[in-house]
Predict the 3D structure of the following.
Amino acid sequence: MQENKWLSMKEVCDYLHISRDTVVNWIKKEGMPAHQKGRLWRFDVNEIDEWMKTSEESSYESVDENAER
């Protein structure tokens, strides 16, 4: 695990290869970990990596459950 590294909104978009709108949507609807100070957003890269892993696992579980029906 790497040292805490904080990413800006632009950096997290580049890191995940997604748009700003998608990041904002994920924060609001999917519980993406983010820290806001005023208008500034910051993202802990370790939190993002862990959230992506757990989000993927739960998505796969949902697909598996639907496939069994």
In short: The chain has a mean pLDDT of 86. The domain at 6-68 is CATH 1.10.1660 (Multidrug-efflux Transporter Regulator; Chain: A; Domain 2).
